[in-house]
Amino acid sequence: MGKVIGIAGSARKEGNSATLMRMILKGAFQAGADTKEVYLNGLVFKGCQGCERCTSNGNCILNDDLTPILDELKKAEGWVLASPIYYDSITGQMKTFFDRCRTFTKDPKTQKLKPQLNGKRKGIVIVTYEDTPREDYYHEAEKLANYLGWMGDFGKVKIISEGNLGSKDAAAKKSDLLARAEKLGEDIFS
Q1: Are 41 and 93 within 8 A, CB to CB?
Q2: How many CB atoms lie under 10 A from the CB of residue 175?
Q3: CA distance 39 to 7
Q4: Cβ of 176: how many Cβ atoms within 10 Å?
Q5: What pLDDT, on a 0 to 100 scale, did the predictor assign at position 186?
Q6: Which of 20, 33, 109, 117 has the greatest number of C-beta atoms within 10 Å?
Q7: For residue 164, is pLDDT > 80?
């Protein structure tokens, strides 16, 4: 496996979703992948402007902190997306990131929906929350996994939907959960 990039949608670098993302990346690294962590909250970037120019030239016209990350994601063989659930959905940071990924979904020549990321990829989507396990929160992760399919061939995207976490650092205290995440990263990205 080549490059695996983790995208954290939480404002908390030590929060539950980011902790699980890091453990997956640790497993990927142990399997031989080159890994990178990206914390969206530390970037200054705009949301999609709806200008449609990305659909005519294949690149977003915005030039901000997200631009080089999008360029790296074009080449990455693995994506790990992590977000806590806030107000029954992914964070605003993760939603804004996904809106900017629109450039990966349309053929600039035909204007038809067609994945623009070439080659096979692998993906993992993580959502974490304090509440008891909820199917609707799992579906939030499923939506992200589905969107990845609009961008390229991600095959079967793995989903971690982890509830009952309580405090912002609860995942870091659950050795079984950390071990499962690390093993998943090693297995998927080997």
Answers
A1: yes
A2: 8
A3: 6
A4: 7
A5: 97
A6: 20
A7: yes
Q: What distance in Å separates the CA atoms of residue 48 and residue 97, rounded to the nearest whole number?
A: 9
State the Cα–Cα distance between residues 164 and 157, nearest whole angstrom. Answer: 23
Q: What is the pTM of this model?
A: 0.95
The pair phi, psi for residue 35, each rounded to 5°, is -120, 155
Amino acid at 63: N
- Backbone dihedral region for residue 168 (phi beyond 0: left; psi -120 to 50: alpha; all else: beta): alpha
Q: Which domains does the chain have, with CATH numbers?
A: 3-188 (3.40.50.360)
Tens of pLDDT along 44-96? 999 999 888 886 777 889 999 999 999 999 999 999 999 999 999 999 999 99
Contact (CB, 8 A) for 186 and 27:
yes
